[in-house]
TrEMBL record:
GO terms for molecular function: protein-lysine N-methyltransferase activity. Methylates ribosomal protein L11. One of its GO terms (biological process) is methylation. Keywords: Cytoplasm, Methyltransferase, Ribonucleoprotein, Ribosomal protein, S-adenosyl-L-methionine, Transferase. Its main location: cytoplasm. It comes from the Bacteria. It holds the Pfam family PrmA. The gene is prmA. This is Ribosomal protein L11 methyltransferase.
Amino acid sequence: MQAAKCLELRISADLMQEEAFDELAISLQALGQAVETEADSGDCEYIAWFAMDEDEQASRGRLAAAMLLAGMDETSFTLTTLERQGWETAWQKDWHAMPVGERLWVRPSFCDGPSDGRVDIVLDPGMAFGTGTHPTTRLCLEAIERVCREQAPQTLLDMGAGSGLLAIAALKLGAASALAIDMETDSVEACRENALINGVELEVQLDDTPPARRFELVVANILAAPLVWMAAELAACVDQRLILSGLLTTQVDDVAAAYIAEGLVEVRRDSQEEWASVELVRP
């Protein structure tokens, strides 16, 4: 069952660079992020939402400690408890339908579908991370679209699936089957719900390690450190092609090296803003 509450973190854009906030929010497993600008004053705030444990004070303490370690003092940010309805309202006002790549259209259910024949993906993330707005997600979607245009895979693994967006996109672009794995129960539930909404059959698994199976295409939009830690296990899943993201451009060399050491060959890098993806194949 999805969490009834979440914590909303806000900080003025004057106090932290956007890329630093993005990296911090993702490292803390944010459910979603947004930028809010006041129309009259022009003041800008960065916002992120986080799942709350049963112990609210412990959840607040962990986030506050992370902000202090990032160099912020206690007066520079706010933490607010939101009921689930408050979370839904918060992300809805900052998320709109959008085209991705050449063929995809990603939208929440309260927005209209595409008018130009794009592949329609309906995504209401609930309490799981992944709406498609972050550059790393877009990089993965564009890579999946390109691979499926060349030849849609028979099998796909989406490791750290979040809302299930990447796996669902692949299925709607012609992949024959897909497995989505995430370590969070909210994400597993979101994957199942979003697959049902989009009319695709998606295998979903609660786990924090890659399975002992091979897949034609493996995608993982996580973070640099866990991608390096799981390099041996994740590389072993790759039958043909691997797409990795969740990386700053400064982190790609180290992550790619970890997978090259496991016998894969780098064939492509792409970037948007300060974020990057890397693609490797099994020779």
